[in-house]
Design brief:
With 83 residues, the chain is α+β, with helices and mostly antiparallel strands. The protein has one helix and three strands. A hairpin with a 4-residue loop joins strand 1 (32-38) and strand 2. The longest helix is centred in the N-terminal third of the chain and has 13 residues, at 13-25.
Length: 83
């Protein structure tokens, strides 16, 4: 996933699937999974949120000036991309 010049590096599909399962299995009622790029760690991380408004707390990767930036956001259950 996330192959191409628009992304910092590729993400293994198996890692993405594991992250989805982790979010669904949480006792907290998460609804969304955010894929965040961490500039200092030079890697992706998953962030789980309950409310859609939480997605907008992150700058998009293309225009980010901070440490963490949003690459994509997904609904945990439909797996559709929401941001």
């Amino acid at each position: 996933m996330f192959n191409g010049a628009a992304f910092p590096k590729a993400l293994e599909e198996s890692v993405f699937e594991d992250w989805l399962e982790t979010g669904r299995a949480s006792k907290i009622g998460y609804k969304y999974m955010l894929i965040i790029w961490d500039n200092y760690d030079d890697d992706y991380q998953a962030v789980y949120v309950e409310e859609r408004d939480s997605i907008y707390k992150y700058e998009h990767y293309e225009s980010s000036t901070g440490r963490e930036s949003l690459v994509a956001a997904y609904d945990l259950y439909s797996e559709s991309r929401v941001g």
